[in-house]
Design brief:
6-stranded antiparallel beta sheet, alpha+beta, globular, single chain, 3-stranded antiparallel beta sheet
Length: about 475
């Protein structure tokens, strides 16, 4: 082989520098002015009730009343569960046309603290069911609108609410600019561990409470609360329907088949570790707000010394960003060709690993009988910060931390410097996206009232009196 100094023997793709992408982003302002993102205009035919009904077609029918009860508890709960409705609305808005890997559901409650594989506590995004390859603007708008709704629910006046929303937009913009100024490997290794978070969140008491709560949210603690030991030493689940209930024998067998398929998708060391455990019980467990009605299970595994491990098996459907918003795809084009569009468990796991600084080593996926699932460890010291307990300054600090983490997630995509160039160093986009968020928060509240009335009128096939109390 002849040596070619400084070059491969074959032609390679052109290397697009971050500076070139940044300039392309700046140039895009003439095509899509940043101020254009400030106008929210609802489509004449928008129908939030019809969108929810469409979502329910593929969900467990008996859980729909519980989903509606949780969603209609208050405006922020409704917003958490209405990502599909917002995806429809976002699809009608302006976009630069440059996509990246997005969370798809970047509201305040989907950030939190959890344990890294090294057992340190980190702060990051923690929900990727709606992740996709799509418009970066959608994540920012969903995030800033959640700040508005959470601030209003906390009782802050409109002036403080607007201030917090502007901080959210500004910190995302400045953090993305800073991170895209780093080399690719540098920003890949960035992570917000708790020790660094103590400098980001000024309220020591807020973090201390969250850390204390995280230390309690372990599989072992869950096992003590929801299981009992059978005569043979195995751990079995104690029911608490409808939230936690055993499944029919056939479904239980399906769950075990999912586990077998899952083991082929995890790293070898995790497969060897799990081979020392035996599944001893499984039950359906209702989780979240928007996820209610999806097929979700927990499996208790028992080790050779009687030690328990709890895994969560959660159904993964198509991202609302794709199904309802028309986003480009479920995954970045760099994903393997063999990963088909309907492998939504693979989509969730892959996107999670892109967007999170560190991820659960137990992450894996499986497909069975037309349903896709992803699997992870259940409650590995994960906890979200309750914004309803925060005074304004700690609330704003928390918002800043979330905006920084969202920027770090977006910075992993090749097109991130383009976004940084488009946003620039001024507050033009900040002001626009806050204007949009304030208007959309009003829309979400109006949709809440519409859906409440639809429930009362029996449009979802249940009477208001039949809907369970939110849990």
């Amino acid at each position: 082989m002849t040596a070619h100094e400084g070059h491969l023997r074959f032609d390679h793709e052109a290397i697009h520098s971050a500076a070139e992408l940044y300039r392309a982003g700046k140039d895009a302002r003439s095509r899509v002015p940043r101020s254009a993102h400030g106008a929210y205009a609802p489509a004449a035919d928008r129908d939030p009730v019809a969108t929810l009904k469409r979502q329910h077609e593929h969900r467990v029918a008996e859980l729909i009343p519980l989903r509606l009860a949780r969603m209609t508890a208050d405006a922020f709960a409704f917003y958490r569960g209405s990502a599909a409705i917002q995806a429809v609305d976002l699809s009608h808005g302006p976009r630069t046309g440059v996509d990246l890997t997005i969370c798809g559901d970047a509201h305040l409650a989907n950030f939190g603290i959890y344990a890294s594989p090294e057992r340190s506590l980190v702060f990051d995004l923690n929900d990727f069911d709606e992740s996709a390859y799509g418009p970066w603007e959608w994540d920012v708008k969903r995030f800033v609108t959640s700040v508005v709704l959470a601030a209003r629910q906390r009782g802050f006046g409109e002036s403080k609410t607007r201030t917090a929303a502007l901080e959210a937009a500004a910190v995302y913009r400045t953090a993305l600019r800073q991170m895209t100024g780093l080399e690719v490997l540098e920003r890949y290794y960035l992570r917000a561990d708790v020790s660094r978070g103590r400098r980001t969140l000024s309220s020591q008491r807020v973090l201390d409470r969250a850390i204390e709560a995280a230390s309690r949210r372990t599989s072992a603690r869950v096992v003590r609360k929801i299981t009992r030991r059978a005569p043979d030493g195995a751990m079995t689940i104690v029911e608490s329907p409808p939230v936690l209930a055993h499944v029919p024998e056939a479904t239980e067998q399906n769950v075990l088949e999912i586990m077998d398929a899952y083991l082929t998708t995890v790293p070898t060391d995790i497969a060897v570790l799990l081979s020392q455990y035996v599944p001893t019980d499984a039950a359906r467990r209702v989780v979240g707000v928007g996820s209610v009605g999806t097929r979700c299970y927990i499996i208790v595994l028992t080790g050779p010394a009687g030690e328990p491990l709890v895994l969560q098996v959660k159904e993964a459907g198509e991202s609302v960003a794709v199904e309802f918003g028309g986003a480009t795809a479920g995954r970045s084009p760099v994903f393997d060709d063999h990963a088909h569009d309907d492998e939504h468990g693979h989509r969730v796991v892959g996107n999670q690993r892109v967007l999170q600084a560190v991820s659960d080593p137990f992450l894996g996926y499986a497909n069975l009988d037309g349903h896709a699932f992803y699997i992870r460890q259940f409650r590995d010291r994960n906890v979200s910060i309750d914004t309803e307990t925060l005074d304004f300054r700690p609330f704003a600090d928390y918002v800043d931390a979330c905006g920084t983490v969202l920027a770090r997630a977006h910075a992993q995509s090749p097109s991130a410097p383009f976004v940084a160039g488009y946003l620039g160093s001024g507050a033009t986009f900040d002001n626009a996206v806050v204007a949009w968020a304030l208007a959309y928060a009003d829309q979400a509240h109006a949709d809440l009232l519409t859906v409440r009335q639809a429930v009362a009128d029996g449009e979802f096939g249940i009477a208001a009196a039949d809907a369970p109390v939110p849990a």
